[in-house]
Design a protein that fits this description.
The chain has about 260 residues and is an alpha/beta fold. Helices cover about 45% and strands about 15% of the residues. A six-stranded mixed β-sheet has the order 1-2-3-4-6-9, with helices on both faces. It has a three-stranded mixed β-sheet with strand order 5-7-8. The protein has a two-stranded antiparallel ribbon with strand order 10-11. Strand 10 and strand 11 form a beta hairpin.
Length: about 260
């Protein structure tokens, strides 16, 4: 599938899929072609039952510097251009993947790039990462999920500050805000993410998926319903474990003198 794409690279190594945003000459700016190819690649991840993890990263000097502003001149207005860019929805695919996802961030992670990363489960940032949601400075608002994922990732006040001011923050500040899971030296980003991916893929796949589902779905439920979801998922795991430990049933009926 790698050769089919012009804006990204899709690779599979064992149980790990890797999608690399690959427009380094424009800092991996997100355009309509990337949207379409990202939709196709994420669909491939979703449909491959052998996969257990997705890693999303960017080639060159940035993860993703946001929307490709050159597309704004090809539509009647910036609003129309943004509608064209988001008409297909890779964000829902990323959100609903059956496997965990890691975003490996470095350099500029702005606008659509940050919004994309916020749909991933874990975000590992190189210490040179700069993050921002700058749309308000262009007279626009975040339209790729940022207004919803920001307050679900950090506290409301921090989310409002970033969405309303559009200011840039560094990796360490992003860690304090809770926007990234960890910060590592830039030259160790690849090795750190590879180690984390290896650790996650050694864990029981059903347990990881159940825990991930409990956290993600429970966030939008009242506490009592969230606790019920957690209990139900834990019970299903215990039932599956008991089934695996139980001996297979004897075939046939017990008759005098032995088995049929």
């Amino acid at each position: 599938m790698t050769g089919a794409f012009s804006t990204l690279v899709y690779e599979v190594d064992g149980a790990v899929a890797r999608i690399t945003l690959n427009r380094p000459e424009v800092l991996n700016a997100y355009n309509t072609r990337m949207r379409d190819e990202l939709t196709e690649a994420l669909s491939a991840v979703r449909d491959d039952s052998d996969l257990r993890l997705l890693v999303l990263n960017g080639a060159g000097q940035a993860f993703c510097a946001g929307a490709d502003l050159t597309e704004f001149g090809t539509a009647p207005s910036p609003t129309a251009a943004r509608h064209l860019r988001f008409a297909r929805d890779p964000w829902s695919l990323l959100e609903d993947l059956p496997v965990p996802s890691i975003a490996a961030l470095h350099g500029y992670t702005f606008g659509s790039g940050l919004e994309m990363a916020l749909f991933c489960d874990l975000r590992v940032a190189a210490d040179d990462t700069e993050l921002a949601m700058p749309e308000v400075r262009w007279g626009l608002m975040p339209a790729a999920g940022g207004t919803q994922t920001l307050p679900r990732t950090c506290v409301m006040g921090r989310a409002l500050e970033l969405a309303l001011t559009g200011r840039r923050i560094g990796a360490r500040e992003a860690l304090r805000y809770g926007l990234v899971s960890r910060v590592v030296p830039t030259n160790e980003l690849g090795a750190n993410v590879a180690q984390l991916a290896a650790e996650l893929t050694t864990l029981d796949v059903n347990t990881v998926r159940a825990a991930r589902r409990a956290v993600r779905e429970g966030l939008d439920l009242p506490l009592a319903e969230g606790l019920h979801l957690e209990s139900r998922l834990a019970d299903s795991l215990r039932s599956a474990a008991v089934d695996l430990e139980s001996p297979p049933p004897l075939r046939g009926m017990v008759r005098e003198g032995g088995y049929s």
